[in-house]
Design brief:
By secondary structure, this protein is an alpha/beta fold. The protein has 10 helices and 10 strands. The protein is globular, with a radius of gyration of 17 Å.
Length: 279
């Protein structure tokens, strides 16, 4: 049976990727943030996942407002880094796992989740920054990756409850995949931030830390947070945090918190990191 080795939740701030790419991680501004990522890199080396399912949102790199899938699974052999306006990041090509990805697609669709299928697409900082956070600057990423893209750009995004249920359906699909694969699940995005308007730069550390507390201990409470509450409390881009609930739904009801890190600011965002394992 396929084994879920744990879940990792992290912000995917593009400036974090730039700091890695340009060797700025030990500079005074960035060092406190990256010091908190060392445990994640140790954890990845310890648990050695064969595959990471990375839940993220595209930032108009693979999709535009002409085509907006609510949930999309990448099933390709590989996914190149996207050009987000300043050239692709100098990071390894992301290698997929088509066999498991197609199994997930079939299982989830038959469980009545209407998944779109990505046979060819680039992946932007939403996916590659979490890999950099967890893996550093390798010549090749240490595991295969299945991208799971979620619309949190164009209203309406999926609810937290729907995301949590999708995580549970992913868990079911993995348990029914006949292999000895070790799978990690990443939920990415957030935490509190807003990039435009009068509230640009808003940070709500109290909301963020309560979210992390409940992600570990009371995830069902998080499924009751409305879109409006996310935006009021965590800024317009705080809605990205619903993607962490897909990761959480794939784990046991009771989990062990392995590591937590929270830092303000990372660019104009509150950056969070949490690692959870089944207890």
């Amino acid at each position: 049976m396929t084994t879920i080795v744990g879940g990792l939740g992290t912000s995917h701030v593009p400036a974090i990727g730039a700091a890695v790419d340009h060797d700025k991680t030990t500079e005074a501004y960035w060092k406190p943030l990256f010091d908190g990522y060392e445990k994640a890199r140790e954890w990845m080396k310890d648990v050695k996942p064969d595959v990471a399912i990375i839940v993220y949102n595209d930032h108009a790199s693979a999709f535009s407002l002409e085509l907006i899938p609510t949930f999309l699974l990448g099933v390709a052999d590989e996914f190149p880094p996207a050009d987000e306006g300043y050239g692709p990041r100098d990071v390894p090509v992301v290698k997929g796992h088509p066999e498991l990805a197609w199994h997930l697609a079939e299982s989830l669709i038959l469980d009545e989740f209407d998944m779109a299928i990505g046979n060819k697409m680039p992946v932007d900082h939403g996916l590659t920054v979490p890999l950099s956070i967890a893996c550093g600057k390798p010549d090749a990423w240490p595991c295969r990756v299945i991208p799971l893209c979620v619309n949190v750009i164009q209203y309406p995004p999926p609810t937290g409850l729907r995301c949590y249920k999708l995580g549970k359906a992913i868990r079911k699909a993995l348990e029914n995949f006949d292999s000895d694969l070790r799978v990690a699940i990443f939920g990415t995005g957030g935490m509190s931030h807003q990039l435009q308007g009068e509230r640009a730069g808003v940070i709500n550390a109290e909301f963020d830390n309560k979210f992390l507390d409940q992600l570990s201990g009371d995830p069902k409470a998080l499924t009751e947070i409305s879109h409006q509450e996310y935006m009021m409390e965590a800024g317009s881009e705080g809605i990205e945090m619903v993607m962490w609930l897909i990761m959480r739904g794939a784990l046991d009801d009771k989990v062990k918190e392995v590591h937590r890190h929270y830092h303000v600011p990372a660019s104009n965002t509150a950056a969070g990191l949490i690692i959870l394992e089944n207890d």
